[in-house]
Write a structure and sequence with these properties.
alpha/beta, Nucleotidyltransferase, domain 5, six-stranded mixed sheet, two-stranded antiparallel sheet, globular
Length: about 290
Amino acid sequence: MNLLREYIREILAESKLSGRTIKGVLNLLDGYADNTWIFFDTETTGMHPKNSQITEVGAVAVNPNEWASDASILGEFNEKIKLEQETLNKIEQERDHGVEDGGARKKMSVTDILSMTRYGETKGKYSGEAEVLDRFLEWMQTFSNPLLVAQNARFDMKFINVRSGGKVPKYPVLDTQELMKNYLVPLLKTQTQAEEGDLAAQELLDKLYINRGNWGYHSVSMGVVSKAYGIDVEGWHNALVDVKMMMEMYKSVVDTIRQGLEVDISAEQGKDLAKQKKRQKRKKRR
């Protein structure tokens, strides 16, 4: 597992998003103009690749310089994966004994997850996990200089690398969730706090706000952000649908960030960093 952490750290280092200015992060993104951007998503039966499997892989390859229209799409990949015996055994066990309480938040059963991702609703060929992952990796390698783009990329990269037996090439990776956390939200907060205010920024920020009883936060969930931008979220949690939603969300988010090119967001970034350090200290004490 240490090797896996080093692998993920290395592939994400080239596209490290934290600590940059607005101009700096836009320069970083523009620096990938010669790459083939491969937006991808996985659906899984759980959170941990050692005891959960992938059930679907969806991806779209695009030329980043010309992808405002369908003509710029270079290829698509979408395959379903049949359930392994271990997964079937878990489903049977959950039916017989229920799901153990996961603490403050009730753990979802495998059956719940499969229902949420609409597993089995689409007819067609369902292949073995190893077979599908091999085909996906071969498909990626048919494109020139790939850049992998995913929402919460660490999760998907870890799953694909572990479940494929470490076969994923060391391509650069862009995490749309980190982009929004480190730039979109700090930008909107800075704009709303300006002396003259910014009604458009406040409206978008309000749409990202999630209220959890006595506390709340600004979400960078793909569903929440897409809905805030008026992007269709019907069919969410289907890999290929999620990929196409992610592409539209990314374009909208980057357009917002470009409009804030001259805004200094360092104060809001500093507040967020301080919060992260506090959370890390609390975790260490537990």
